[in-house]
Specification:
The protein is an alpha/beta fold. The protein has two domains: 194 residues, 3-Layer(aba) Sandwich (Rossmann fold); 131 residues, Nitrogenase molybdenum iron protein domain (Rossmann fold, 3-Layer(aba) Sandwich), CATH 3.40.50. The chain is built from eleven helices and 13 strands. Strands 8, 9, 10, 11, 12 and 13 form a six-stranded mixed sheet that branches. It has a four-stranded parallel sheet with strand order 5-4-6-7, with helices on both faces. A three-stranded antiparallel sheet has the order 1-2-3, covered by helices on one side. Strand 8 and strand 9 form a beta hairpin. Helix 4 packs antiparallel against helix 5. About 15% of the residues have low confidence.
């Protein structure tokens, strides 16, 4: 995502805020989640951009991840978010009064339920979007191209963002949204507060023995899926002071044989879908040490899946699981 403000062509190189971003992820499928490199775990400040003007100057010229140039003539007053993390960012920036549409999967904060839904992330209801008359629609990579083209042909502005590959990408996403909705100061304050919290967590867990951890995305007869080494969630596990047993694997793929071989101390599962009950009662998995020791821990996986304001909270949640004595 590249943005420049009209009449301010100098310094546009400083406004490269979010090539390959994903503001929103997952319809409950962590396999679509963002990815990152392990070395990024100790280098999470790369996402800070230089913001020369605290207020956005319109017209704002955007180039999204599809390479499309979008001109936003004035501050948007009617925004449709087609991804949960976009919605969370809008609320965190205090611009929720501009939000007129969201997806069925948006569930945080609670008051988002009062906003009209436009349907799914991948294939929203075009008629509903038209009816809501948005100034701009902000979508993730899951948004179908044919739907985007249909809306564009009707004159509706769409900004599409692809997957970010590390935590700095989340910072960029927040700053990008801050520029779009004229809340740059709030965006930078939010990013700074996230960085402070993550730095505090890193300092707490530094020097501690990292327990072996396995994060369950899927299991059973259709295969084992997890946050492998190149994934964004793997980076969060490392920052939180855990040793991801799947760090040397790739493409979300794993196997029961490898889980048994590494026998993790902690197994992290979503609190949704009845995953814990299924995992702990299935042959092969129920014999694992973590299951026997009641160390299969349920969490709100949206804290990890969504690249938004709650990422630091997600990392803290993991750190409290791995190192409970440090967070009493």
């Amino acid at each position: 995502f590249v943005a420049c403000q009209s009449g301010d062509s100098k310094g546009n190189d400083n406004d490269n805020i979010g090539n390959a971003q994903n503001f929103g992820n997952s319809e409950g499928d962590s396999q679509n989640d963002t990815t990152g490199n392990d070395e990024d775990a100790d280098n999470i400040d790369n996402g800070e951009d230089i913001i020369e003007n605290s207020e956005t100057i319109y017209p704002l010229i955007l180039k999204d991840s599809n390479g499309n140039e979008i001109i936003i003539e004035e501050e948007p007053t009617r925004i449709i978010s087609v991804a949960p993390s976009i919605t969370e960012i809008i609320y965190a920036l205090g611009k929720d009064d501009k939000l007129v549409g969201r997806t069925d999967y948006d569930d945080y904060p609670e008051q988002v339920n009062e906003v009209e839904s436009v349907g799914s992330i991948t294939n929203p209801n075009v008629e509903k979007i038209i009816e809501l008359n948005p100034d701009v629609v902000i979508a993730s990579a899951h948004f179908k191209e044919d739907v985007a083209k249909k809306l564009e042909d009707l004159g509706i502005k769409i900004v599409v963002f692809y997957d970010a590959n590390d935590i700095s990408g989340a910072y960029d996403a927040i700053n990008s949204m801050g520029q779009i909705v004229n809340a740059q100061d709030s965006a930078q304050e939010l990013v700074d507060s996230m960085k402070i919290k993550i730095d505090e967590i890193k300092e707490k867990v530094q020097g501690q023995e990292a327990p072996k951890v396995y994060y369950v995305v899927g299991f059973g007869q259709y295969g084992d899926y997890t946050a492998t080494g190149e994934t964004f969630i793997a980076q969060m596990i490392e920052i939180a002071g855990g040793d991801n047993i799947a760090k040397d694997a790739s493409d979300w793929m794993y196997s029961l044989e490898k889980i048994i071989e590494h026998d993790p101390e902690y197994i992290i599962v979503s609190k949704n879908y009845g995953m814990k009950d299924g995992f702990t009662t299935t042959d092969g998995y129920k014999e694992l040490t973590a299951v026997k020791n009641n160390k299969v821990i349920e969490i709100d996986d949206n804290l990890l899946n969504r690249q938004g304001p709650r990422l630091a909270e997600g990392i803290e949640t993991l750190a409290e699981i791995f190192h409970p004595d440090l967070f009493e």
